[in-house]
Design brief:
heterodimer; A: 508 residues; mainly alpha; two-stranded antiparallel sheet; 2 strands; globular; B: 627 residues; two-stranded antiparallel ribbon; 26 helices; 73% helix
């Protein structure tokens, strides 16, 4: 095996082994277990960083981009898994999946580090971080899988640990929220399974590389497959109107759960749409693109409007995710290189910024024991640094140019305008108006939360400094929100060739 | 140093000061002040360097990022006008930074304030030098967020947070159009670089509907930032910010940015017919609206704020008749005297302890230096020769009176002329009410001159307020403001304005208007020096004071419907969309219960059910012949 292939396996094996070890250690030494988990996550992060490269046969294959397959992995590992069923353990990484893989390992690391000091009520923190590592395996596996069945397996691995995280360490209404989360997304998984089976049985292969571009699937199969897959991923993303599991799950999940959920778990949906749904059934994607676009813009507008009247801090941030994911899906729906690249950077930016917002919302809730905007107020009088950071994150989230959130949203609009025609132009305009609404609800939030005289709850709170765990967890996200904004090439610098390859087969 | 290296330095100096300043601990006043003043002083030096070295266009750019074939560059585009605007911005910024040290001497949040002012300056300078539309948008929007932060700075004012939100949101609504306009231009030109876009416009590659749409959309953003009707509503409310911030917003940054961007993208607007016509109509409405609203305000800062609205209208009017040089000239002189007026008004407010002119009066004796500075500023505002405002307003009016055919230029001229009288009226009222008569409050009776940090910048700004107009006679200034008449400049289809300065018999008209307004206000005031001359406006006074109720209209037509829509969206989302989900869940559970009830049978019934089932299977098997 080459180094690249070893790395591919390692980035999955390290957290998997680590999770088992941490879980075993927890009963004897809970805190030590959390430290071990952080070390494991750090190693996994470093290993995932080293996935970067043009790979073992990169340049040679890039030259064939115009006529070649729709995916050109930097590193690829293809092993027989279940020969009888022709299932393969097929992994690979390219410029589309790499930023998401790194984002996943980074956020897991930050959540583990944060959990050393901050364990939510519910159970030993060691089990919590062990579950986070299992979730990491599932998410990273989803991003790396190049076999449809393998993709499905990893996609499902995430579900139960996340359920346990919410149900075990969540808020007062955690049982209901966790059940809703698991049932709703299971419903999506059923569709995904049917979609995968449809594709695999019709094409006779589960190899995503071979399938990208539609392979030899008939138009009818592609339409059916796209609808099934897109709905499945739309639940995960989530796309309006399939989003209602999200606010409940976010509101009840512990801070680290929310961070992982918003930061990377939702990205499995958008990644799935780009790589699997659009890639495998381009004909279906072209057919359904207008519907997808309309729903995406509806998500932007409805999400923003709901946020405008939201009274719970975490719920508001959750709904803002619906709007942001709407921009991402609008980018995908255009099926242009501009749009897909906008979706990729929007995806990563949302993970960074919303992750930060949930960390900060958690810090506010930890200190003031409420997330109700009717009780909070005047935060900058008592906690100027925390409210300053929160304002920074909110401003980044509302898409201020110069910060990470801007690129994805602005260029989703640009891509829609680029498509032209009355429908897409209208969508672009409405999405841009949605951008103004986004600013409106974030400023309303800031006005309620930070400005004005301190509310009784805030005034009664003791002055507090940032803990070391908080600083460690937040600062990378703060830096990234700024860095991705100033140097967007950090995320989409290496997406050019793979996106070109994808749109190349789309146009064929 | 070469302009290519100086250009990026211009925004970078205050940007760096802002970045470091934001990380300072709250108590570090001295360090914060040093950073703020140092950053803008360095920028001022760079701007001076640029003003000396740059006269022709200079460009430098590098690739920033690429989105599927659309290139975004990181680069600068400098010309004489950019250097002059940069000079104005940095002078005002430095004055504001120095002044703020005194004005906010007891404010515990001075450190972040100073850093935010630096960031504000940097953002404006990015707009000034940007060679790429996306980079320009970055500066444009960062400026918006800085205005939001700084307007909301004062914690004692309950109105401040709302005013801050309003400032950002109203401009952001305009920016929806700005973004779409930029996108249209970028897509059509295949690049967001300003020179590429202008080249594509010049060659006719972008034209027709796309160009018109782009120009009109950009205009929405310009109207938002430059407070043109109907997006002017945020500017008077922005008075809730500290006075130095008002000076910054009104003189050097926000409102100047819109006008500047139109001059920057002049070919787009000139060719994007009827964009200039629309701009002209907005300008005319804005000139009158601002002037009339200024006549009836009691808050000294609000008078000045509405006067800004009106003066920005003059600049927009000049742009609309194709006189970018005159617009920029008025922008520069306005920057000088409006910064002076706001900072001097801040000294007055600081001394009296109130914004209300009803509580001032007689300050001439207690604050002579401030009185004379303010007198110079007001005289420049109304256009008293030979002060700065006279020349630049004259340039605007002359451009309107000599511009080509159509109904717009005469309209701009007529409205501009009438508003000269209105301006003289409200400026005289402000002058008399503040500095003459008897003091009307204990604050006014005990007022004193401000500390040196505040007095210094005010006095220094008197110099450009007085002399900048005459500088228009020099080639150095005029040559930089007037665009070179080249083939690639379609705006020269309109009559070329070869000279900024005009001194002919037609000057008599605005001077007469000035006299009418000024003497009118004085006569009214003389009847009762304690009363407000605005009472003579009768029932119109309330209408003017409320600025024709446009705020209420905006609330009724935009804000309330959006809030109602949001309420409906939330309710629908919770009852209909989520209701379907939970309903499905409940229905499934109910169905399961029902089936469970059916299955919960006694042994005899269960046994017979099994037997019946078996019988059915057997019959089916027999008839279908499976077995």
């Amino acid at each position: 095996m080459t180094t690249g292939q070893v790395t591919l396996v390692a980035v999955l094996a390290i957290p998997a082994v680590g999770a088992v070890a941490v879980a075993g250690l927890t009963r004897r030494a809970d805190r030590a277990a959390r430290i071990v988990a952080t070390v494991v996550a750090a190693i996994a992060f470093l290993v995932s960083l080293s996935l970067y490269g043009t790979g073992d046969r990169g340049w040679f294959r890039y030259q064939a981009a115009t006529a070649g397959p729709g995916i050109l992995p930097w590193h690829e590992l293809d092993l027989t898994w279940v020969p009888g069923l022709d299932l393969r353990f097929h992994l690979g990484v390219d410029g589309i999946s790499y930023p998401l893989v790194v984002l996943t390992t980074l956020l897991t690391l930050l959540c583990c580090a944060y959990s050393i000091r901050h364990v939510p009520a519910g159970g030993p923190g060691g089990y919590l971080v062990a579950l986070l590592l299992v979730i990491e395996v599932g998410i990273v596996g989803t991003f790396l899988a190049l076999d449809l069945v393998l993709f499905f397996v990893f996609f499902e691995v995430v579900l139960l640990p996340m359920f346990v995280v919410i149900a075990g360490w969540g808020g007062d209404d955690r049982g209901r929220a966790a059940r809703k989360f698991v049932l709703y997304t299971l419903f999506g998984s059923v569709l995904l399974l049917v979609g995968v089976v449809t594709v695999v049985s019709a094409a006779g292969t589960a190899d995503i590389v071979a399938l990208t571009g539609g392979g030899n699937l008939s138009r009818t199969t592609q339409l059916a497959a796209f609808v099934l897959l897109a709905v499945a991923f739309a639940v995960k993303s989530p796309l309006w109107p399939l989003h209602t599991w999200l606010p409940d799950a976010h509101t009840q999940a512990p801070t680290v759960g929310s961070v992982i959920l918003a930061g990377v778990l939702l990205k499995m949906g958008t990644y799935g749409i780009i790589r699997v749904a659009v890639g495998v059934a381009p004909e279906g994607a072209r057919w359904a693109a207008p519907v997808l676009g309309v729903l995406a813009v509806a998500a932007v507008v409805v999400g923003s409007l709901v946020c405008l009247r939201q009274t719970d801090l975490k719920r508001l941030i959750a709904y803002s995710s619906v709007g942001h994911m709407g921009f991402v899906l609008l980018g995908v729906a255009t099926l242009t290189a501009t749009g897909i690249e906008a979706a990729l950077i929007g995806n990563v930016a949302h993970g960074v910024i919303t992750g930060l917002l949930f960390f900060l919302a958690g810090a506010i809730k930890d200190r003031l024991h409420t997330g109700s905007l009717t009780e909070l107020g005047g935060l900058r009088e008592r906690m100027p640094a925390l409210s300053g950071l929160f304002a920074f994150a909110a401003v980044a989230s509302l898409g201020l140019p110069g910060l990470a959130g801007f690129w994805g949203e602005a260029f989703a609009v640009v891509a829609a305008l680029q498509r032209g025609g009355p429908l897409w132009t209208t969508l672009a305009v409405v999405a841009a108006v949605g951008g103004a609404l986004t600013a409106a609800y974030f400023l309303r939030l800031l006005r309620r939360l930070t400005h004005g005289p301190a509310s009784p709850v805030v005034a009664a709170a003791p002055a507090s400094r940032f803990g070391a765990g908080e600083l460690v967890a937040w600062s990378p996200l703060i830096v990234l929100a700024l860095a991705v904004g100033l140097v967007p090439a950090l995320v989409i610098g290496f997406a050019g060739a793979p996106v070109e390859a994808l749109t190349g087969v789309l146009d064929r | 140093m070469a302009p290519e290296t100086l250009g990026p330095l211009l925004p970078l100096a205050p940007l760096l000061a802002a970045a470091v300043g934001l990380l300072l601990p709250r108590g570090a006043r001295t360090a914060a002040a040093a950073l703020g003043i140092g950053g803008s002083a360095l920028a001022l030096l760079v701007a001076v360097g640029l003003a000396v070295t740059v006269d022709g266009p200079v460009e430098a750019s590098t690739r920033w990022v690429e989105f599927g074939g659309l290139t975004v560059t990181l680069g600068i585009r400098l010309d004489g006008a950019a250097a002059l605007v940069a000079l104005a911005v940095t002078v005002v910024a430095l004055a504001v930074q120095v002044y703020s040290v005194g004005y906010l001497h007891d404010d515990s949040r001075y450190a972040p304030y100073a850093a935010q002012v630096s960031l504000f300056t940097a953002a404006m300078l990015i707009v000034v030098v940007a060679g790429d539309l996306i980079l320009l948008l970055v500066g444009w929007e960062v400026m918006g967020i800085c205005s939001y932060l700084l307007i909301g700075h004062d914690r004692r004012l309950p109105a401040a947070p709302a005013a801050a939100v309003k400032a950002f949101l109203v401009t952001r609504v305009g920016d929806v159009g700005f973004l779409l306009g930029i996108a249209l231009l970028g897509i059509a030109a295949g690049s967001f670089r300003i020179s590429d876009v202008l080249a594509a416009v010049g060659s006719g590659e972008i034209g027709g509907g796309t160009l018109t749409a782009a120009a009109l959309l950009l205009l929405a953003g310009v109207a938002g930032k430059s407070a043109l009707f109907p997006l002017h509503t945020w500017l008077p409310d922005a008075m809730a910010g500290p006075t130095p911030i008002s000076a910054l917003i009104h003189a050097a940054t926000m409102v100047a940015a819109g006008i500047y961007v139109v001059t920057r993208l002049d070919p787009v607007f000139a060719a994007g017919d009827p964009a200039l016509l629309v701009l002209g109509v907005l300008a005319v409405v804005t000139i009158v609206l601002g002037g009339l609203a200024a006549t009836a305000q009691d808050d000294i800062k609000r008078v000045l704020a509405w006067s800004t609205v009106s003066q920005i209208g003059y600049m927009a009017g000049a742009l609309a008749v194709g006189a970018t040089g005159a617009a920029l000239f008025h922008l520069l002189t306005h920057a000088a005297f409006k910064a002076l007026l706001f900072l001097a008004a801040g000294s007055v407010i600081h001394a009296v302890g109130s914004n209300s002119m009803g509580e001032m009066g007689g300050l001439r004796r207690r604050m002579p230096a401030t009185f004379w500075s303010m007198t110079a500023g007001l005289a420049a505002l109304v256009g008293l020769p030979p002060l700065a405002g006279f020349w630049s307003k004259e340039a605007v009016l002359h451009a309107a009176s000599s511009a080509g055919a159509g109904w717009l230029p005469p309209l701009v001229y007529a409205v501009g002329l009438v508003t000269v009288a209105i301006t003289a009226w409200y400026a005289t009222r402000l002058w008399l009410r503040t500095f003459f008569g008897a003091p009307r409050s204990s604050g006014a009776r005990t007022a004193h001159e401000p500390p040196a940090a505040m007095a210094g910048p005010v006095l220094l700004l008197v110099v450009p307020s007085a002399l900048l107009g005459l500088a228009g006679y020099t080639d150095w200034l005029a040559g930089r403001l007037l665009p070179p008449a080249t083939a690639e400049h379609p705006s020269d289809l309109l009559p070329a304005h070869t000279n900024l300065m005009h001194l002919g018999p037609e000057v008599a008209l605005p001077l007469a208007a000035l006299l009418v307004g000024g003497v009118g206000a004085w006569l009214l005031w003389r009847r009762d020096t304690a009363a407000d001359p605005a009472t003579a406006l009768g029932p119109a006074r309330r209408v003017f004071a409320a600025a024709f109720g446009l705020d209420a209209l905006q609330r009724a037509v935009v804000v309330r419907p959006v809030v109602a829509l949001a309420r409906a969206a939330r309710r629908t989302d919770e009852t209909a969309v989520d209701g379907t989900v939970t309903g499905t869940g409940r229905a499934t559970v109910a169905l399961g219960r029902g089936l469970a009830v059916l299955h919960r049978a006694g042994l005899p019934r269960a046994a017979s059910a099994v037997l019946v089932g078996a019988l059915l299977v057997a019959v089916a098997a027999a008839t279908l012949g499976v077995l």
